[in-house]
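[job 0412] stage=complex_fold ligand=phosphoenolpyruvate status=START
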Amino acid sequence: MKKSLVFAANWKMNQAPADATAFMRTFVGQYTRQQDRRVLFFPSAVSLHVVVGAIKERGDLEAGVQNIHWEDKGAFTGETSGTLARSAGARHALIGHSERRHVFGETDEETGKKVVAAIRAGLTPTICVGETLAQREAAETLAVVRRQLRAAVSGVEAASVASAIVAYEPVWAIGTGKNATPADASAVHVALRAELREIAGERGGAVPILYGGSVNRSNVDALLAAAEVGGVLVGGASLDAEQWLAIVRT
Ligand code: PEP
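[job 0412] stage=complex_fold status=DONE, emitting structure tokens
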């Protein structure tokens, strides 16, 4: 059976509203719906409205935010809550992206609280996990990703875990041009799949597990062919509409 795939674009702190408008005009104009795939966009919060407006007639295209706070509202200057994001049209939230963890010091405990908040707000969390180079070299990869996954879902019911997305993103591969080989990625995905089945039973078998880390049009096919790779989370290569079109049409 052909796999059903998820392609997620993380624009990080790029694409102002005018850039997002031009990008979405090109993308939506040229991309025709494909039954076996969903395309998710994670723009900066200031460009979310542009993406939401551009995809409103399209069930195969979805929008989300790159981060949320764990509270729904209040005195948290500079933060965006899940409920605010949902009311602005987001349906998804990245949680625990490696830049949140390693640049902003987000802890496992905080990712757990953010997953709870995302689900409470009606957002699908994309839970990001991944090891540093030092952890990989110390053969700690599987222990690290299992710990991160367990912590992220510790506050939610199995049914909510079953409706989440997981992304394996080795820290050393993000934005570096280095990517895990399909076999290395697959070994981690297989371990995450086993963990998801333990957490959520049979339903854990259906959670998409995406690979992220320097994915581009040249390496995407081989990564998607690997066992348990159910899609890709893409940063740099998702910023150019033509390149992103090539990736999602792969
Ligand atoms: C990311 O930001 O999630 C990512 C994988 O970035 P890049 O594709 O640029 O490595």
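The chain has one domain: 5-248.
[job 0412] exit 0
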